[in-house]
Amino acid sequence: MALNKTEKVDILNIGLMLLAAVIAMVMPFETFLFVYAVLGPLHYLTEISWLHDKQYFVKGKYDSVILVIAAALLALFEIREQLSITFPIGFNANIVFVALLGSVIFFFVQNNFLKWAGIALVILTSQVSSNFNLFLTLFIPTIIHVYVFTMLFMLYGALKSKSRFGLLSVFILLLCPILLFTIFPNTAFYPISEYGIKNYQNFKYLNILSLTTFFDQPLPDSMDGWSNIIFHTKTGILVMRVIAFAYTYHYFNWFSKTSLIQWHKVPKWRFVAVILIWIAGAALYMIDYTAGYKWLYFLAFLHVILEFPLNIMSISGIVGHLKGKVMKTATVRTGGK
Length: 337
Prior knowledge:
Distance between the termini: 37 Å
Helix content: over 70%
Largest sheet: none
Low-confidence stretches: none
Mean pLDDT: 90
Order of helices and strands: HHHHHHHHHHHHHHHHH
Number of domains: 1
Structural class: mainly alpha
């Protein structure tokens, strides 16, 4: 049976997934640093451009403005020390909380009064975010965004297109982290370089949180102790394999679906602007990795937050599909009554 375009892309994605797993296993830290600096900025820019043309999957014309403001505030929070700005404790968690629940409202609610009343309620109750601080500020913008939301987007697409290879790709995506922990677990193929150690400092708290949350890692006496655990121990390297895989495949998945998503079909001036900003951003990373990280943090968080309504759509679509299947099955069993 001939393959359609969607199935061909799904097969390509399976190959890219396996490629991402292999390079993440062999060079986890350097792979992450490379794809984050080179593929990351191009992904941010092209996805934001695509989301703009899709009206950000929200109901109101100006709903996305709130999400842009949230990303700007988070970017300011990240460089607060350089700007000598003081924020309240838990400010960044409050902002992510408002952006996430606000996106649910923006996606489902059409009525302006109900919408803005809901946003006001979310803002007033945002202090509860202090109970989920690390989850909101570290896991959602990172592993949940690049792995969980990517998987949900793939599953939604596979269910819509009824692609057998799409469903297979979701299964393999679930399987890869397990394989990365079980295949050659005691082998560090390419020990991290001094360059890697220096420039990965911007991301180390994700590893620390992962190690303490999922592996009950005893707390070392100093940050030097953490560096040894992250960069030189078996568990630290295995955790990094998964992180590197998740980010690498997240970018691969986006670019491999160009023919389906059509993100490249934009006005020429915008396409040129995207390419120029990408080249400038990647060059800045090459010159000074930390400077690139700081300056492009706004774009990174902006694409995460602007994607929230799309994530809500994926979840809603999956639930709707499964609900339809259950109802259809129930109708068949009751003889259509």
